[in-house]
Amino acid sequence: MSNPMEPSSMGGAAFGSVTSQSEEAMQDTSVARGGPTGQAPVPAGPAAAGPYPSYHGRTVSWVAVAIMVAGFVIGGLALIFGHGGPIWWLFWVGAGVAVLGLLVALATNMFEDWY
């Protein structure tokens, strides 16, 4: 049985690193080729365009999400803290607040905030 780490068992290449066709394809798509001046390849993708903030979205989008979360919390607490059952009027207030947050999200076009 041959040793899998021997160069002869890696496709017949005796020296150097061996890469599969899929690895070569990934390398080709992940690096932009250098220009005619012979410059080194420049990495392609988001890192080449510059640093991005650690969060996505606008402030108004985060406000809409906070309104929706508050509505769900209000509705959830209304289901838990009732004497002898849920506090239905508070549950529906929480549902209304969540719908209000959704309307704010739709009105401010929140779903187009991704980069």
Mean pLDDT: 75
Largest sheet geometry: 2 strands, antiparallel
Structural class, please? Answer: mainly alpha
Radius of gyration: 28 Å
- Strand residue percentage: under 5%
Helix content: 40-55%
**What pattern of helices and strands is seen along the backbone?**
HEEHHH
Physical arrangement of strands within the biggest beta sheet:
1-2
User: Tally of extended strands?
Assistant: 2
Unreliable residue runs: none
Shape: elongated
Q: Figure out the total of helices.
A: 4
N-to-C span: 52 Å
List the helices and strands and how they pair.
Elements: H1 21-30, E1 31-32, E2 42-43, H2 46-49, H3 59-80, H4 88-107
Helix pairs in contact: 3-4
Quick structural gist:
The protein is mainly alpha-helical and 115 residues long. It has four helices and two strands.
